[in-house]
Each structure stands twice: as structure tokens, then as C-alpha cells.
Amino acid sequence: MNGRESVGVSGLDTAPDNPGAGGDIGELRVEILASLQKLGYAHIKTPLTAEDFDRTAQQLGDITLRTNLTLTHNRSSIVYKPDEITFHQDNPLMNIIGWYCVRQDELDGSMLLIDAGDVADYFTRRELKILSSIDVRYPDPDPDRHNPDRGLFAYLLWPLVTEKTARTDVYYVPWLLAEGYDDEQQRALEKFAAYLRVKEESQLVAIRLSAGESLFIDNNRVLHGRGPIQQDSKRFLKRVWIKQSEQSNARAEGEGAR
Ligand SMILES: O=C(O)CCC(=O)C(=O)O
Ligand SMILES: [Fe+2]
């Protein structure tokens, strides 16, 4: 790990005990957006309080869900279990995911990231068209329709690749692939999985958050996962799902370009 992914140097380090004062959170927002644009993620090493993390997240868009991630034996989602979590993306309607570390696993607990921001360079025009025709399921965000803890499952569909004017978005969850892909789509899916393996081998980013640190990722670009954690791990992360408005998207692109 080198220091390149660090943000929050100028703004918060001057007043680490009181980052809310003097507009520091506003400055942090600009740094996070710039890092998201450049790297696909922003690792904030300056310790924040949980409240300042939340306030910072609110500056990035609308928080649609707050989740406490700790091992919870009676809950069914993989995020509450100690097993390895393979590379995936969360609900594609969410543009940014943020995690705040309250307590880290004793041995590891690193978040592992793959930046798929270069997907359009790796595939031909024709392959990108095929990838855009591949639908991947995502859980219905309405908890009355999709709620594994209540035995409710409802999925919607989202394209694996979405070509936009200035970027190409990706949405991939290996265990939520739909059924009935044709041969051409199967071949494209295999090549996509190979692309991820190459990136995992050569460009994997591992970030082990310490207590007080936070991480934001561009969920339409970066895949995340982690290795297994201790069966009795005390690891505790707070996660936020953030939806950017069209307005803040446009603003973010403008700021990133400066
Ligand atoms: O526990 C982690 O590091 C990440 C779990 C995860 O996939 C998530 O929070 O969406
Ligand atoms: Fe996830």
C-alpha cells in the first residue's frame, strides 16, 4: 500500500479534532469527488467520528440506506457472515458506497477493489454491445418485496455494461447472473470474467481500514470484495449507500475535470 490513495490531507489534517468546523467537510467532499473520478475510490485516512463520516456522506448525495456491518448470525446476507465475499457491485441505482471503520478484524478484514473503469479499452465495440445486452439481476430495493430475512426475493434487471457519453458503467454480481444467455453472450461473459481475473492479478487494490478511517467507492465502476474474516471477528463497519442526483453528477464531472 502506498500513499497515493490518501485524501483529506489539506482540509482535515489542519483541524483533525474538529473536522466539522470551518467548512472542512465541504473541502473533503471536493477531495473525495476528485479521488473518485481519478481512482474510482477515495480512502480517507484522517480519522473522522461516525457523525462526521455521515455528514460527509450526506454531502455526496442522498443516503438511501445505512447498514451496520458486523457478524450477525441470524441474518442471511453475505455481508453478515465471516466467509470470503467475491468481487461484486451493490445495487446499481446507488452511485457511491461509503464504509466507515468502527473496529477492524484482528487479522485482516481488508476491502479488495477492482477498478473496471477501463472496460471500454479492453473489449471491442462489438463485444461492448453484447455486454450491454447482458442483464444482471439486482435485488428490488423495496424491503416489502425483497427481504431475505423474511424469505422474500424479488429481482430487477440491469445491464452488465452501460455506455455513456463520458464513461462506461459496469454492473457485475457473479451470483446474480440471469438465465438464458445465448452463445455470444456466454462468450462475452467468459471474457468479462477473464478481464476481472487479469485485473485482480495485476491491479488489485487492498485497503485495510483502521478505526476512524473511511472509504468511498464509485459503485458503477469499481467492484468490491473481501477475504474471509475471523469466525468471531469483532469487525464493525458502518456502510452508506449514496444516490447522486443528476445535478450532483453533472457537478462532480465538472469538478473532476478541473
Ligand atoms: O465487509 C465488507 O468489507 C464489504 C461487504 C460488502 O460487500 C458490502 O458492504 O456491500
Ligand atoms: Fe457489497
Strand order of the largest sheet: 1-2-12-5-14-3
CATH topology: Double-stranded beta-helix
Rg from Cα: 18 Å
Give the helix proportion (percent range). 25-40%
> How would you classify the quaternary structure?
single chain
Shape: globular
Q: What small ligands are held by the chains?
A: 2-oxoglutaric acid, fe (ii) ion
In total, how many beta strands? 14
Q: What do the pLDDT scores average to?
A: 89
Derived structural class: alpha+beta
Strand content: 25-35%
Q: Count every helix, treating DSSP H or I runs of 4 or more residues as helices.
A: 7
- For the record, give the distance between the C-alpha atoms at the N and C termini, rounded to a whole number: 27 Å
Superfamily at the CATH H level? Answer: Clavaminate synthase-like
**What's the SSE pattern?**
EHHEHEEEEHHEEEEHEEEEH
Largest sheet: 6 strands, mixed
Architecture, CATH level 2?
A: 4-Layer Sandwich
Low-confidence stretches: 1-7, 9-22
Classified by CATH, the class is Alpha Beta
Number of domains: 1
